[in-house]
Amino acid sequence: MTTHRLEVWGDPIGHSRSPVLHAAAYRTLGLDWLFTRREVPLGRFDRALADASVRGLAVTYPLKQRAHDAAPWRDQRAAVTGAANTLLPTEEGLRAYNTDVGGIVRALDELDLAASRTVRIVGAGATTISAVAALAELGVAQVEVAARRPEQAAAAADVGTGLGLSARGVSFDAVARPVDLTIATLPGGAELAPDVTDRLAANGGVLFDVAYSPWPSALASAWPAPAHRGLGMLLHQAVLQVRIFLTGNVDEPLPDEPRVVSAMRDALG
């Protein structure tokens, strides 16, 4: 394991802003650390991980569940969601973290959306589960998960029920009740059928779309209420990753953290 190299893995990965964010953080902290991106398809993840020689890894789609499974130790958020976006090699073994949950919590708080009482999540992937866990931490009253396949929506809602939420899963065709906030967890560039988009937008409240490229997303373009892209989530989950890579403790603030966060935010443009 080398001291100064870190990477982000995914497929595709060329759009990732993580190198820009992390470079700004380490520069502000006075650290000569190199953070680069690497395309790693799901089928090559295990071999790439076995050969990796880095201080830490960030992982994105479609590797989050595999990253969770690869580590014998997981933080509570990774254990609850079954997904990890951060891997830290240690002398005791690989440690897995999910900083997406904290990133969503902090982003919603920053946008004054953390007090939303009713929320709909659109999608059914790993980020959906992280959003469910984030809403449980925020104490949301009711959560509806909407997806093309009702069984996937129901599975995500079951995670929320297990965390004490009043949650249900529905197909896109069954969306009806109005909500204060919609969280879209679809991949960037994903498009829904026009009738589905209209149904979601008609009673969806404010939109928080985790996608940030391309922007506006197809959903945001059709949204009549305010729409926010996912750069806040990207920023704050990266701050938590930097904490992990620096000290191994996601709960320990960085030295002069407000200045680091400001530099990372400026790097996003």
UniProtKB/TrEMBL annotation:
Keywords: Amino-acid biosynthesis, Aromatic amino acid biosynthesis
Biological process terms in GO annotation: aromatic amino acid family biosynthetic process; chorismate biosynthetic process; shikimate metabolic process
Any one GO MF annotation of this record: shikimate 3-dehydrogenase (NADP+) activity
GO cellular component: cytosol
UniProt pathway: Metabolic intermediate biosynthesis; chorismate biosynthesis; chorismate from D-erythrose 4-phosphate and phosphoenolpyruvate: step 4/7
Pfam families given in the database record: Shikimate_dh_N
Name of this chain's protein: Shikimate 5-dehydrogenase
Species in which this protein is naturally found: Microbacterium faecale
